[in-house]
Design goal:
heterodimer, A: 245 residues, mainly alpha, 10 helices, B: Alpha-Beta Plaits, 37% helix, elongated
Amino acid sequence: MKRWIAFWNIMLKDMRAYYLKPPNISWGLMFPVAWTGMFFIKSGRGMDSILILLPGVIAISVLFGTTSMLAVTVTFEKKNRSFERLLLAPIPLGLLMLAKTSGAILFGVANAFVPIVLALFLTDLSQIAWITVIPAIVLIAIVSTFLGLFIAVSVSEVFEAQTFSNFFRFPMIFLCGLFFPIESLPALLHPLSYLLPLTYGADILHGAVNGKSSMPLGLDFCVIAGFCVVLFAISLRNIHRKWIV
Amino acid sequence: MDDDRALSRARQADSLIIVDQLTKKFNAVTAVNGISFEVHEGELFGFLGPNGAGKTTTINMLTGLARPDSGAIRIAGMECTRNPKAAQHLLGVIPDESNLYPELSGFDNLCFCASLYGMQKKERRMRAGELLKDFGLEEAAHRKFAAYSKGMKRKLTIAAGIIHSPRILFMDEPTTGIDVGSARHIRQLIAELHRAGTTIFLTTHYIEEAERLCERIAFIVRGRVVQVDTIANLLQPIQQREAMVVSVSNAESDLCSRLAAEFPHLEFQAVSLEHIRVESSEAIHIAPLLRFIENQGAEVTEARRTRLSLEEVFVGVTGIELDAMKKEKEKSGGGS
């Protein structure tokens, strides 16, 4: 019980201190809107393109929302030593890091619903398999958050966190099949695409929204869950190795 | 002799912290080198040494922020060398720098720290209110921590360290770099916590502070504990000695050596060009001393007896000059 009081309050503190601040809320709203608008105009196919673009926009909103915030907040707390308070608390490191990442996961899930709500006003979403979309969004939020955690633990400065995040994030826009099918990329890049977790998340969303997935959904879910476990385990090991010296 | 052994066994059974041959290296640098000591239940234990002696590294190992390379730590009977989380619920830690959340208010910071130890909402709000009142921070309770002065930050950091009423409190340089008034208030708070029964592990490089507050002291120099004893035992060898400082002007540079030749039973040390320190295990007669100095063409502006303190013991044991410690104080901003 005591551990869950700590878990809940770490999450609440992060939500209040970082995620629910006006600049972050506007970032969560403006960023997906800007991406939607950009790809909508670029496609030139009018309202028909909305459902085609929606999976990519959902995935990118979650990816950018989670990685930007978490990488910065953890690095910032490490830098000003307030993270030591958490390490001194009598809760296991794994639970502590789950608490620390839960705020980012919720923020990522909330971000995903911005393009969905906008699309609701513009087109018919009745054919979307929500029972698949919702767990996919949650899994994409978790894997993106853990990617952010992995980045945060790998650097020591806030600016390094931003730079390192972009190193992963921007190539993922083009390599993960968000807006262009992976098959349309040069064959040389295909292995790289399949090494990135967002590829599998985007594939689930394409399948659930447009019925066009390139891999079995069960495989997509398993691979993305595997990425979550591996990224979290590596991050925990790195925290133990680098921060508890 | 039997009584001594029995007392020693009783003390060991009473030990809340047992550190045995603890070592920590950072690459080629050995920060802590095979230190051993015990801290008893309810004791105010001082860990005294210059900057870089290994005080903070020791605290970090005891609290779980650093992993020892070798040696053993037992806290309240629990093995904490490999499992530092085992005793963390018993510990309160006040780091050498204030590390609360700048974007939260003082009240929210305290409530958050209490929640990390599983305190219920009602309980933590009540305790936070009490502590803010005790520390004179009631008016600033809802101001952001970032807007606090240095002394206020230090007080709130101490309040955060004791919000869960820890059995053992680690305080790392609690009065370094803050104003005299705040430092005094913090020393009063430490004494009150001790009186209330909290076991306190205090690191400091302020010798007077350690002498005033602590019951037992360990001297640590270059990663090694060179002596551990009670204040009374440490002071015992110098208790019979007398000391005085003579202030002079227009003195020749060899005045000290001339004084030493004239008064062979006294020890002279030129503290500066204008100050000579005189020490002896016999009584120091002032009149012949002053007459001799004036006969040498110098003018005595002041002569006062001084109390020999733990500083002299520290210098004797560690070989570290007082000047070096004083420079460190100035560098770190004073406050004592």
